[in-house]
Amino acid sequence: MKKKLLWTMVLLSCLSNLKCNQIEKPDHPKGQSRSIDFESIIETAKEKVFPALVCVKVVFEEYERGERKQREALGSGVIISPDGYAVTNNHVVEKATRIKCILYDRRMLSAKLIGRDKDTDLALIKIEPAKPEEVFSWAEFNNSSLSLTGKLKAGDFVMALGAPWGFERSVSLGIVGNAERFIDDYSEYSLWIQTDASINPGNSGGPLINTDGKIVGINTLGSFFGGDMAFSVPGHTAQRVVEHLKKDGEIKRAWTGLQIQPLRDLRKETFLNRDTGVLVSSVDKDSPALKAGIQIGDLILKVNHLETNGVYDTNLPEIRWFLGDLPVNQPAEFEVERNGKISLVKITPREKGKVEGEEFDCKRWDLTVKEINEFADPDLYYYHKKGVYIRGVQYPGNAEKAGFRGHDIILEIDNRPLTGLEDIKKLYEEITKDEKREKKLMAKILRGGTPRLLILKYDVDYDKE
């Protein structure tokens, strides 16, 4: 905060000392100088995009405390076409049952979800016009953002637009700290734009724009540690995702089970003196790559005769995107080097499937359950491939008193195995409708790999207590 305040004071001081707030720069090659009105540049860029900025208000269902409740949340978005398509973050709308957008003229219009992509934290919505002939104000993506080697670079001025904390539209000014930041824990398929332009709760999904008033990124992550850092999904990633979502409503990715690392990785103290290929760091259990014989330490040189360039960590997202685009259920040819010997290996990717499991509220039992998903819940998937686990337990409540905990895997209820969400839905309806049976059931669970038996009494209705 102190650094940001100091930087802002210095900038304002410099601007106030300039005649008419102008910066003199040489106009090469003639050597003449030209005046740039810095404040006007900021104002012009902001005014280009503000009419396209929307506050996204969502109603969603929340299960974490063991009961289904409706909540409201606010985020930001930006209209990208005259017919009302708008981009926001996946985490803004992923649980939404209703979506409203507050426009620049303060009107509130309904919007429908076109599609979302959890892997890149992006979503596409479409605002429903008040009149069929309505044309929305919209903002353009920066043309250079279509390329991975776009013109955005460290030191460029950028502005983060949004509605932080649910307030009215705002703009925060900053510079690009790194135009291609690699943060592996947050996205497999995209690099990040690191800036010191503030991104606060509610700012998520808004546009990051350059001084030309063009979208260069979508604001996604804020940081409260290590100084003023914020992160935006690059414009080229957003455009790529939007194209898929507009066409198919989702992004279907192939899954090989390959986990990769760069040839030159300082964090893992790996340095291979070569310019092509990518290193296999691990292979997922029961994956197509494992079945094909791929091992840790193998070098993937080519895929379907195309070279892989995984020299640095910033190259990994594009390789992962390429692997995700492989045809599903069709063999792909991998040129692999192991111990100095090169061989050809056929891997048949399968569809990655859902990244999130579905949820269900067992209201009378005071708990909610969720479907186990191999990508969202790999630790639970390791113990039990198909089934449900406890998403939340209401306190006080019947499940809590019986000793149930979050992340318990439910194997059986009344000696009936559960293989998925439909099983527990059917069983729950059957049990709770049976007024003659004792309000008690036996459940077999798996906690940390250890089986347990619990007796659940649901004779108390805590919602009426």
What key phrases describe this protein's structure?
7-stranded antiparallel beta sheet, alpha+beta, 465 residues, disordered N terminus
Q: What would you note in describing this structure?
A:
The chain is of the alpha+beta class and 465 residues long. Helices cover 18% and strands 38% of the residues. The protein is built from 9 helices and 31 strands. It has helices spanning 2-17, 38-49, 90-93, 235-248, 288-291, 316-324, 378-383, 398-402, 421-433; strands at residues 22-27, 32-37, 53-62, 69-79, 85-88, 96-102, 108-117, 122-127, 157-162, 170-181, 192-195, 207-209, 215-223, 229-234, 254-255, 258-261, 264-265, 270-271, 278-283, 299-303, 306-307, 332-338, 341-347, 350-351, 359-362, 367-371, 388-393, 409-413, 416-417, 440-447, 450-457. The strands form 7 sheets. Strands 25, 26, 27, 28, 29, 30 and 31 form a 7-stranded antiparallel sheet that branches. A 6-stranded antiparallel barrel has the order 3-4-5-8-7-6. The longest helix is centred in the first third of the chain and has 16 residues, at 2-17. Mean pLDDT is 86; it is low at 1-35 and 145-149.
